[in-house]
Every structure is written in structure tokens, then in C-alpha cells.
């Protein structure tokens, strides 16, 4: 069952419909409710390798839904510390809980200043209204 629409206040958002929960120099990232809703039922997640480097605004993996295959865009740069094995095994978890169990990767930030360029929840909601 898909989650209800939400955009938590404690997250930072990327215009590509990705989110980041930043704690010190580590960020947990995933796709927003809007992104998973637009994709529909997610059936496959192709993650990066642990230890890989992500570059802000560049693709680091793919999610495949019954509608389309979509690249996942990194909201921040860093080294992949962990890949969510639950989402690899059960990709529908992203639809059910995009901000909890449906996270995609954890990264160690290579440039913490990039966080300042991400949107807060109000700016992200405004972006959605304009689409």
C-alpha cells in the first residue's frame, strides 16, 4: 500500500525529487513521495556499490516501476557507506515508506557545504505547486 503524501520538515530536498536526512557528515538519501507517486509501483532498484563516489546532481542508480525506468539523482556528493538491502530485495518498500524503511543509500559527505544549496520543505512544496 502506498504511503500518504508527506514531506517531512527535518529533511532537505533536491529539485530532482530526492531527499536527504543529514546528521553530522553522513546523509541518508531517497526519493520523495512525489517521485514514488509519479513512478507508480516500484519493482526494481539498481543501487550503486558500497564505497562508490556519488556526485551531486548526477545519476547514481535506477528505480524501475511498472510505468518507467528512472535514474536516481544524488542530492549531495559523497562516498556510499551503505545500500538499503531491504529496498533491493523489496523495492515496493519505497512506495510504502519513502522516508523511513524506503531510504536508498547512506553517504559520507565530501562537501558538507552542498547541504546549504538544497531546498527546505517550504521551498520544495512551492516547487511542486509550480509543476
Produce a short descriptive summary.
This protein is α+β, with helices and mostly antiparallel strands and about 130 residues long. The protein has helices at about 35-40, 85-90, 95, 120-130; strands at about 10-15, 20-25, 25-30, 40-45, 55, 60-65, 70-75, 80-85, 105-110.
Structure, explained:
This protein has 131 residues and is α+β, with helices and mostly antiparallel strands. It has a single domain (12-120), classed as OB fold (Dihydrolipoamide Acetyltransferase, E2P). The chain has 4 helices and 9 strands. The strands form 2 sheets. The protein has a 6-stranded antiparallel β-sheet. Strand 6 and strand 7 (69-73) form a beta hairpin. It starts with 11 loop residues before the first strand and ends with a helix.
Measured between the Cα atoms of the first and last residue, the distance is 25 Å
Query: In total, how many beta strands?
Result: 9
> What's the helix count?
4
Please name the CATH architecture: Beta Barrel
Mean pLDDT comes to: 96
- Sketch the major β-sheet: 6 strands, antiparallel
- Overall geometry: globular
CATH superfamily: RNA polymerase II/Efflux pump adaptor protein, barrel-sandwich hybrid domain
Q: Can you tell me the CATH class? A: Mainly Beta
Outline the low-pLDDT stretches: none
**Proportion of residues in extended strands:** 25-35%
H-E order: EEEHEEEEEHHEH
Total domain modules: 1
Amino acid at each position: 500500500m502506498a504511503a500518504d503524501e508527506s514531506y517531512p520538515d527535518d529533511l532537505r530536498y533536491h529539485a530532482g525529487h530526492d531527499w536527504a536526512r543529514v546528521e553530522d557528515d553522513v546523509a541518508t538519501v531517497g526519493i520523495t513521495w512525489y517521485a514514488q507517486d509519479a513512478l507508480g509501483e516500484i519493482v526494481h532498484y539498481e543501487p550503486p556499490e558500497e564505497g562508490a563516489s556519488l556526485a551531486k546532481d548526477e545519476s547514481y542508480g535506477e528505480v524501475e516501476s511498472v510505468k518507467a525506468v528512472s535514474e536516481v539523482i544524488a542530492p549531495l556528493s559523497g562516498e556510499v557507506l551503505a545500500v538499503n538491502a531491504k529496498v533491493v530485495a523489496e523495492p515496493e518498500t519505497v512506495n510504502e515508506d519513502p522516508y523511513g524503511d524506503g531510504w536508498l543509500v547512506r553517504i559520507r559527505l565530501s562537501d558538507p557545504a552542498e547541504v546549504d544549496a538544497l531546498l527546505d520543505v517550504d521551498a520544495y512544496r512551492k516547487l511542486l505547486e509550480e509543476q
